[in-house]
From TrEMBL:
Name under which the protein is recorded: Polycystin cation channel PKD1/PKD2 domain-containing protein
UniProt keyword annotation of Translocase present: no
PANTHER family the UniProt entry points to: AT14535P-RELATED, POLYCYSTIN FAMILY MEMBER
Transmembrane segments: 20-40, 89-109, 129-151
Membrane topology: Multi-pass membrane protein
Amino acid sequence: GLLRGDRARHYLCRFWNWVAWLQYGLLAAGLAFWAAYNAYIAAIEFQPSYPVLLDLEAPARSFATDPRGELALLDFAIKMRRLAELKNLWTALSCGSILLFVMRFLQMLDFQPRMSLITRTLRLASVDLGHYLTLFCIIFVGYATIGTVLLGERLKQFQTFGDACAALFMILMAWEPQTMYLTMSAVTNQAKIGATAVTNQ
């Protein structure tokens, strides 16, 4: 019993075991969200059109709406928003699972001195990196807060704290918003729309 308890304690004290179980959890959650996403799509009854206006050729009150058509359109919009949320959650879980898998794969290369250069270097510099990242986060949050307070009403990039953080990160990485951030955002949205259309078909 004592030996079994020592083994369990030793297993739980290892950092990479927690990383492995976290990766398994994210993978299972991603599969669950993907199944829920497809089940939600299969349950939606799409209509050929959503006629909202009561009479397109009305001489007066041309914008009078049909309550049933308007309700169907609003229900369709709510369901599409829900689909987008599920797809975004699935994307985030999948990216996290892949990142943890790469970390575990690099950790498995410790048997070879040259191939374990990255993990050994990060392990030796982990304490210094922790202090540096703490100071960096404090300074970064301070600049983002100042940018939101001083420039929020003048510049669109600093209207909210999240937008300010994104703008500061692009400035730090020397990214051009028009050629990098907006282009990649458009490509990501197009990929999501395409995946949704293929799944629906």
